[in-house]
Amino acid sequence: MQKFMKILLVFLATLTINADEKISLQLLWKHQFEFAGFYIAQEKGFYKDAGLDVDIKEFTFGTNIAKDVLSGTSDIGVGRSSLVLNKLKGQDIVLLNALYQSSPYVLLSLKRPDIIKVEDFKNKHIMLSDNLESIAAISSMMKVKNIQEHSYVKIPHSFNIDELINHKTDLMTTYISNEPYHLQERNISYTIFNPKDYGFDFYSDILFTSKNYLQNNKESLKKFQEASLKGWEYAFSHMEETADLIVAKYNTQNKSKEALLYEAKVLKKLAYVNNTPFGSLNIERIQEIANIYRLLGMTTQTNDLLKDIIYQEKTPFEVVKGLLTLELFLIIVTIILFFSFLSLYKQHILKKQNNTLEQLVLEKTQELRTANEGLEEKIAKRTEELLFATRAKSDFLANMSHEIRTPLNGIMGFIDMLYKNEENQKKQEKLALIKESSNTLLNIINDILDFSKIESNKMTIEKLPLELRPLFENMVALFFDKANEKNVSLKLSIDSNLPQSTLGDETRIKQVFSNLLSNAIKFSKENTEVLININYMAKTNKLFCEVIDEGIGIEADKIEKVFNCFEQANNSISRVHGGTGLGLSITKKLLELMNGEIGLESVLGVGSRFYFTLELIQTQDVLKPQNEEKELLDSHPLQAHILIVEDNKTNQILLGMLLDEHELSYDVANDGLEAIKAVQKTHYHLILMDENMPNMSGKEATKILRKSCTPQELPIIAVTANALKGDREGFLECGMNDYLSKPIDATELKQVLYKHLSADHD
Predict the structure, then answer these.
(1) Cα atoms in the Cβ-side hemisphere of radius 13 Å centred on 526
(2) I need a labelling partner for 438 at 20 to 30 A (CA). Which of 105, 374, 728, 744 fits?
(3) Average pLDDT over residues 306-328
(4) Residue 237 near residue 229, CB atoms below 8 Å
(5) Whole-angstrom Cα distance, residue 555 to residue 574?
(6) CA separation for the pair 422, 2 (Å, rounded)
(7) Residue 532: C-alpha distances to residues 30, 126, 544, 546, 563 (Å)
(8) Omega of the bond leading into 407 within 30 degrees of 0 (cis)
(9) What's the CA gap between 320 and 329, in Å, rounded?
(10) What residues are paired with 23 via a beta bridge?
(11) Of residues 635, 762, 753, the one with CA closest to residue 686
């Protein structure tokens, strides 16, 4: 009997092992070619070969797909990009694959002379879905072209193409894979407005499951994905056969074979965009979609909730990355990259100090003389190598600056806006920390670039009129908060005989003074004071400035080192207080370029006294006080139409929001070519022009525009991450009026706008 029971148990176990595992798949809509890969995988036995029994469930009205998957009613669902919102709401959604890299959801109109571009939507009747989540990309497309909700008439969606044909609506949301076919059947011309063409590119038909189901069925999900992929590859490779299958077995909508084939061809293009592997999902695109939802006011949650939204096998690095918020992750990784570069660069500098160019040339020359052959060839080769190395370093710095400044512009800009509008004190404090870290990173970038400019003798000192007393008073005022954090008091004394104005480089003088004052506060002990004395030496016509602190002080034998590149008084300083070790070196070199000198007296444990002299150039120019300038700006509100030329979508939105603060209207172009076309159609008062863009750069576009309009007729402002010496000059030479470096400072942008638009208000 026992033997029989054992045999029976083995038999039952075998049946269990051999039984196909059941999986339920909830579709997004009614049966059509949109889901063809699943039908093929079912009918060709791909699922069965993988040991799966898949139940493909057609959509019925009232079905909440996300709710069904989360509750276990369905194992896997097909959803839209709005699943990102579900995740931001705290729901345990996990994305598996995106069937279509771009959404087929578009705005459609009949071909009409009064509806050619998005700007023509004003005062038109538009049939839109009430589901804001589904029309987010379309809403963003309209918003970026300044089509607000009050500027058109929204009417309920009937889902009937005859409403458009009979002119009961001017535009309607449709699927590019469906309604255009029916218009073609009737020989009716139409115009499609696709959000993708305006930079709002959403995924469509995203396979997803719940976190719970994933944790318990990883192998089954893997088999399902592989079998489904096989089905999709077959469906798109055998469209005729697949269409016949749908007509025969899955045609609940009674579509014709021709309509299904039209749908197939359109969807195939959406599934394989730019040779992207089928089903791909990218976290950066998901985060960008979340940013758009956030800007539309559909969520207030941060992107850190999206860290595990895409299912993939994680490396240890990705695990660490997932523990960090997006903002902090970007900042920390960038800082790590910078300090890695600094370490390498320090080695380069030390090597250069020990092996100067002259020594290398002499050594090579002596060797070649001894060998008595190929002298000229080898010298030329060595010179070429050195020139190549110099160019490589410059290119690296330029590229590094651009690649880091571009995302940093978005980070700092949006953080600043969030900080201003955040009422929750705890959240504001966290934003302040991120803001401080971003500013620190920007300072590091600027230090490296300044060092490079000085080293290559490309730093230019300007000689423009400036007022000294307000300069120092305002700079000290900027550091009050920083000093108060350490209970350090600042005492400023300015010589009454100090000349009212002089000629000089205001930016570089501020940089020198700011560096000394910042260091004094940083290294001061709590409950001490920092003395700032500004004196005028009439006999020599020199400015004398000293900054005295009661800080940690410096050992006598280490004083000279603080002015060397990449060096600080001791190794623990960088660990405790941060810094690149470039600040004082740059300060010294800047003063030398301005015919000034710097000195230091310090006692370890007592404090330090930094001082510098600067030769003044007398001028009779009377400068307008800054408060008068501010009053003048505030008294003249701007009214202008501006063109933003920028390929980065985040920066487009940021610049648009900054212009919104001044109630300025604007259009957006994604590259120089689009900008030229826009100027030909529309009158603009000013252009904000990026440089590095696809199809046509900012400089190329400016040169073409200057053939038809002068700088006075159409001011063009460079807004770019290119911040090395020569960049500004290059932009001005090609015909641009001015230059703004990323990250964009809201105050600087305001000054530039008023400067170049003032003529319109005279």
Answers:
(1) 3
(2) 728
(3) 57
(4) no
(5) 16
(6) 74
(7) 76, 65, 11, 6, 21
(8) no
(9) 10
(10) 54
(11) 753
Query: Tell me, what's the pLDDT at 679?
Result: 93
List the end-to-end C-alpha distance of the chain, in Å, as a whole number.
108
Residue 326 binned pLDDT confidence (cut-offs 50, 70, 90): very low
Per-residue model confidence (pLDDT) at position 225: 94
Please write the tens of the pLDDT for every residue from 158-215: 889 999 999 999 999 999 999 999 999 999 999 999 999 988 899 999 999 999 999 9
Q: Measured in whole angstroms, how far is the alpha carbon of residue 84 from the centre of its chain?
A: 19
The counts of H helices and E strands in the chain are 29, 22
Strands, E assignment, 27-104: 52-57, 76-79, 93-100
Q: DSSP code of 35?
A: G
In this prediction, residue 124 has a pLDDT band, given cuts at 50, 70 and 90, of: very high
H-type helices in 89-155, by residue range? 136-144
Q: For residue 299, how many other CB atoms are within 10 A of its CB?
A: 17
**pLDDT grade, residue 437 (50/70/90)?**
low
Residue ranges of E strands in 148-195: 153-155, 171-175, 190-193
Say how far residue 108 (Cα) sits from the centre of its chain.
Answer: 31
- Please state the φ and ψ torsions of residue 172, each to the nearest 5 degrees: -150, 150
**For residue 564, what is the enclosing H or E element?**
none
Structure tokens at 206: 């995203």
- Of the candidates 400, 203, 374, the one whose C-alpha atom is nearest the C-alpha of residue 286 is 203
Question: Count of residues for the chain?
Answer: 762
Threshold 0.70, pTM exceeds: no
The DSSP code sequence of 423-476 is --HHHHHHHHHHHHHHHHHHHHHHHHHHHHHHHTT------EEEEHHHHHHHHH
Can you say how many angstroms the Cα of residue 122 is from the centroid of all Cα atoms in its chain? 30
What SS3 class is residue 157? coil
Look up residue 622 and give its two tokens. Answer: 């009377």
Greatest CA separation for the chain: 120
Selection from 240, 253, 418, 452 nearest residue 327 by Cα: 418
Question: Helix crossing, 746-757 with 649-661: angle to 10°?
Answer: 70
Asked if 68 and 26 count as a contact pair (C-beta separation under 8 A), the reply is yes
Residue with tokens 């005279």: 762
Q: Percent helix, strand, coil in the chain (nearest 5)?
A: 50, 15, 30
Which burial class, exposed, middle or buried, applies to 126 when counting CB atoms under 10 A from its CB (0-12, 13-18, 19+)? buried
Q: Tell me what the mean pLDDT of segment 653-663 comes to.
A: 87
Residue predicted with more confidence, 504 or 761: 504
**Angle (CA) 264 270 271, round 5°:** 85
Alpha carbon 565 to its chain's center: 31
Dig out the tokens for 12 from the structure. 């039952």
Encode pLDDT of 256-297 as tens digits: 999 999 999 999 999 988 778 899 999 989 998 988 888 788
H or E stretch covering 120: none
CB atoms within 10 A of CB 685: 20
Domains of the chain (ranges, CATH numbers): 20-101+203-318 (3.40.190.10), 105-198 (3.40.190.10), 326-454 (no CATH), 464-615 (3.30.565.10), 626-761 (3.40.50.2300)
CA-derived radius of gyration, the chain:
33
More reliable by pLDDT, 730 or 498: 498
Helix segments in 145-210, DSSP class H: 162-165, 179-185
Phi, psi of 264, deg, nearest 5: -60, -45
Angle between helices 357-371 and 375-421 (to 10 degrees): 160
Instruction: Please list, in sequence order, all residues whose beta carbon lies within 8 angstroms of the beta carbon of residue 435, skipping any fewer than 6 positions away.
Output: 412, 415, 416, 419
